[in-house]
């Protein structure tokens, strides 16, 4: 993890401290803000593309999982690198898939450290190649964005320019990462290096593709197995949105039963079933001593199906979230934590 995240230069795996706090603030306020997501109007093109692709295959079997994964992958890619940035997309996806395999690969050196330098499975060699490929790809993207920014500054005709995630992060760019002052405003409080920017992009690409695709696919699966709930969602969409336009962000607050359906999906099928944490200091719980830097796994899957917290926990029933006092996923109700809880909760939760 340390190697793939540029020695924990990202937000997800960085150690807790002042620099991490400012990194999270950058991500929450700039990268994952709802206002920012609403400004990515161009990525809605991907939704239209998928709808057209599916509609062209009426009456034929399609692989829903492939369509959904392609949708989330393309949206995340365009949000990160820009609407016009399609060059090398297939190559970048190949690198991401290799990273994904390496993250989950069994490494015998984890059990027998002596084998680390021998590298009997070739994992270290693959790690080096994947990092080098990623470095080259994102360095080119960053260079293009910096050149584009210089040209815009030279012209500066007053037109509003559509920016992406790389543009947002480059606003904090410096040759040397440093925390200036936590008390200063965000723009003047932190500086990010290229490695920081690359690592944050990796957080977003991993956190915004497979996990989101998994949640959507499970939601569709459960609705197909529950025709009454499917009909209720369809009826709500017809009444609130209609049949002549796409769903917009402003519609979401009015789509009550759709939101209940998504919550029920996250309860039964959290995208990350086991949430990884680490103790910051020695502690004791119920007489058990837990030393500093111990890995702690939170079983979000089991918590969401705990019969002491949920009636009929293995039954898909979105209407349960219409009941008063039902737990919410914002992290304050420990019966329902698909995004985690506390300061290390998922920053994209608000989206």
TrEMBL record:
Q: What does this protein need as cofactor? A: heme
**GO molecular-function term, one example from the UniProt record:** heme binding
Q: Which Pfam families does the record associate with it?
A: p450
Alphabetically list the UniProt keywords.
Heme, Iron, Metal-binding, Monooxygenase, Oxidoreductase
Keyword Oxidoreductase recorded: yes
Family of this protein: Belongs to the cytochrome P450 family.
How is this protein named in the record?
Ferulate-5-hydroxylase
């Amino acid at each position: 993890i340390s190697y793939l995240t540029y020695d924990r230069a990202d937000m997800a795996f960085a150690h807790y401290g002042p620099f991490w706090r400012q990194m999270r603030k950058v991500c929450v306020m700039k990268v994952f803000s709802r206002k920012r997501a609403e400004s990515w109007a161009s990525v809605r093109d991907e939704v239209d593309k998928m709808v057209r692709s599916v509609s062209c295959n009426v009456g034929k079997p399609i692989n829903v999982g492939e369509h959904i994964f392609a949708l989330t992958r393309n949206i995340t890619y365009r949000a990160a690198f820009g609407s016009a940035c399609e060059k090398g997309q297939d190559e970048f996806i190949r690198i991401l898939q290799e990273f994904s395999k390496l993250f989950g690969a069994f490494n015998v050196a984890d059990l027998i450290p002596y084998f680390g330098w021998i590298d009997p499975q070739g994992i270290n060699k693959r790690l080096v190649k994947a990092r080098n490929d990623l470095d080259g790809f994102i360095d080119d993207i960053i260079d293009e964005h910096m050149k584009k920014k210089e040209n815009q500054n030279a012209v500066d005709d007053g037109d509003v320019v559509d920016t992406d995630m790389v543009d947002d992060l480059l606003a904090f760019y410096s040759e040397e990462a440093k925390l200036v002052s936590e008390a200063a405003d965000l723009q003047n409080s932190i500086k990010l290096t290229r490695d920081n920017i690359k690592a944050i992009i990796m957080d977003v690409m991993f956190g915004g593709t497979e996990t989101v695709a998994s949640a959507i696919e499970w939601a569709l699966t459960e609705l197909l197995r529950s025709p009454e709930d499917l009909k209720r969602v369809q009826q709500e969409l017809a009444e609130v949105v209609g049949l002549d336009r796409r769903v917009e962000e402003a519609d979401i607050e009015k789509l009550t039963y759709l939101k209940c359906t998504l919550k029920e999906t996250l309860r039964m099928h959290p995208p990350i079933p086991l949430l990884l944490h680490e103790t910051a200091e020695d502690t004791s719980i119920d007489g058990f001593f837990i030393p500093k830097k111990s890995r702690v796994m939170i079983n979000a899957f089991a918590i969401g199906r705990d019969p002491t917290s949920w009636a009929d926990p293995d039954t898909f029933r979105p209407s349960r979230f219409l009941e008063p006092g039902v737990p919410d996923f914002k992290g304050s109700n420990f019966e329902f934590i698909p995004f985690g809880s506390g300061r290390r909760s998922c920053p994209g939760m608000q989206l």
